[in-house]
Amino acid sequence: MAVSLDALREGLSRVLLAADEAVKLEVPGRTDAAVLVPIYLHGGELQLVFTKRRDDMRRHPGEISFPGGRREEHERDLWATALREAEEEIGLPASAVTIIGALQPTPTIATGYAVYPFVGMIKSTRDWVPSAGEVAEVLELAVPALVEGYGRRRLLRRGLPIRTDTYLVGNDLIWGATARIVADLLDRLAALGLTGDPDHLAKDPGSQAPGARLPTSSSRSGR
Questions:
Q1: Topology given in CATH for the domain delimited by 5-202
Q2: Mean predicted confidence (pLDDT) in 91-117
Q3: Predicted structure pTM score
Q4: Pair 120, 38: CB distance under 8 Å
């Protein structure tokens, strides 16, 4: 899946939504929020940057997501929200990010957010500074590993079993709104031939994989 930086930038600009058009799309949600989807090349391979929340957080403990949060009143643009949150959560300054475009906004079910994802290119080498009060770990996951880890898996939500799209890389499980954002991005990358598996959504390993930490009835997330 070797690709040059210039080719990646040009290709993404063709398949992503324009940021100023994406913010006009309406999705269910009482509160507007935004996330940054940082992407970079390392050894010719695409990598995405996620955060893993602390286990002692009141909402979404231990869950994996892109850096982001709710829009503040003074922020003119939602991508400004995504950039601010990325700097606060993982120490990624806005000056180190080039916003290439956006993905389809998605709602969160339980928390009532309308989440607008923006894709930003960054350099491949960086020392992360996780927010001590919120982020337990910054994860850098390769696109091929995410493709390989896709599956519709059985989880427990509020004591009830659900079957939902997930991505499992090692013991790191991505589900809910973040999984929907990942799926949208992988579909667009597949159109450019950059996932190595254009049929990634056809795979279904079934039930939970050994060693994965899956959400249980104690999880407060409805994402």
A1: Nucleoside Triphosphate Pyrophosphohydrolase (3.90.79)
A2: 94
A3: 0.86
A4: yes
